[in-house]
Amino acid sequence: MTSPADHLILRQRFAEIARSVVLAEVAAIEDYHWPQKSLQALADSGLLPLAIPKRFGGLGAGMTGMVIAGEELGRISPSASLCYCMHVVGSAVIAAKPSELQVEKYLLPIVQGRHLTTLALSEPGSGGHFYEPGSRLERAGDHYLVHGAKNFVTNGGQADSYVISTLSEQGEAAPGVFNCLMLDRDTSGMEWEGSWRGLGMRGNSSINLHLDGARVPLGNLLGEAGDQNWYVFEVVAPYFLIAMAATYLGLAQGALDLAMDHLKQRRYAHSGQSLAEDSIIQHRLGELWIAVQQARLLIFHAAERGDLGNPDALPFILSAKVAAAEVAVRTTNEALTFTGGSGYRDNSLLWARLRDARAADVMAPLTDVLKTWTGRALLGQPLLS
Ligand SMILES: Cc1cc2nc3c(=O)[nH]c(=O)nc-3n(C[C@H](O)[C@H](O)[C@H](O)COP(=O)(O)OP(=O)(O)OC[C@H]3O[C@@H](n4cnc5c(N)ncnc54)[C@H](O)[C@@H]3O)c2cc1C
C-alpha cells in the first residue's frame, strides 16, 4: 500500500513521461507502431514494478497506482497506457503467489526494469468469455506441451513473457477453472501471426499467437492445483478491469482537454465571441465534466477497496470498467461535436480518441456481461451461471 503523498509523486512521474516521451511518440503510435520509446522511458524511470509488492523490491502501488498511471498515460496516448497497464496486470498476477524460481526469473528482472510481461487470455473460440479457454496442456517429462491459440495479445511479440491460460491437464474443466502459466519469449512451438491493424488503439500490437506444442517448463505454472479460480477472480480480473478502467478514464479526460482547448481558442469573426462564452456549450461541458468525475471517483474507490482487500470490493471493480467505457465513448463523441468541422475534417487527435474509445465495450469482460455480474455480486449469486 502507498500513501496519498506517494500517489502525488507517482502522478508527477507518470505525467512527466506522458508529456515528454509519450507525446513525442503519439504520431508513430497512430501509425501502428508499438510505443517502444514510451515503454523504455517507463522502464528507465523504475516504473515497471508498479504493482509488485515492496517485499519483492517493487513499488507496491497496487491498483490505485495503476489508475494514476492509466489516467496520466491514457490522457496522452490510450495505446501506450494499455500496453503499460497490461504489463502491470501481468506482473501483479506473477507476484500474487510466486515460487522462488518465479521471483528470480520474472519479478527480479521487472524490478530491475529489464523485463516486460503481458496477459494473453483471449482465444478465438471463446471470444469475450476469457474465462473459458480451449487451449490445453499435456505433461511431457519436465515440461508441459501447450496446444491452442490466443488472439488480441496486447504487447504481442514485444513482451519478454506472457501470462497465458489453459484448461487443466485432464482437458475438461468447469467454467473459470483453468491454469495460468508463464510462456517465455521465443519458446519453441509458439508462433505470432499477422500485424495489428485495429480501428483504434493502433500502437497495441494486439496480435494472434499459435501454440503448437509450446514447451513450457513445469516451474512456469503459477500457483498450485486448485488455485485457478482464486487467480481469475482475485487477481487477474480485478487488475485487468482496473487497468482498462484507468486507460479509458485517461482517454475521456484527454478528450475533454482537447475539447476545452478548442472551445477557448475558437472565436467567431462576426461576433468576436469565443465558443467558451456560449451558455449552451458551458452547460453541456459542465454535464460532461460531471460524468467524467463520477466515473473517476468510482474507479479510484474501486481500486482502493481492491487494494485494501475489502470483501465488498467486487461490484465496485466490476462496474468501474463499465463506467469508464461508457464515459469514454460519450466524452469522445461529444468532444468531437464541440470541435465541429475542424475536428471532423482533419486527421485530428480527437478522431483518434473516438476510435480508441470504441475498444472499451468490446474488450472483455464485455460491458453487458459486467453489468450482469455486478447484479449477481450484489445479490450474492455466483458470477458464472
Ligand atoms: C484493442 C484490443 C486489445 C486487446 N487486448 C487483449 C489482451 O491484451 N489480452 C487478452 O487476453 N485479450 C485482449 N483483447 C481481446 C478482448 O478482451 C476480447 O476477447 C475480444 O475483443 C473479443 O472479441 P470477439 O470478436 O471474439 O467477441 P465476441 O465474444 O464474439 O463478442 C462479440 C460481441 O457480442 C456481444 N456479446 C457476446 N457475449 C455476450 C454476452 N454474454 N452478453 C451480452 N453481449 C454479448 C458483445 O456485444 C460483444 O462485443 C483485446 C481486444 C482489443 C479490441
From TrEMBL:
Cofactor requirement: FAD
Transmembrane segments: none
Domain of life per record: Bacteria
The keyword Membrane is annotated on this UniProt entry: no
Gene3D superfamilies: Acyl-CoA dehydrogenase/oxidase, N-terminal domain, Butyryl-CoA Dehydrogenase, subunit A, domain 2, Butyryl-CoA Dehydrogenase, subunit A, domain 3
GO MF annotation list: oxidoreductase activity
Coiled coil start-end: none
Descriptive protein name: Acyl-CoA dehydrogenase family protein
Organism lineage string: Bacteria, Pseudomonadati, Pseudomonadota, Acidithiobacillia, Acidithiobacillales
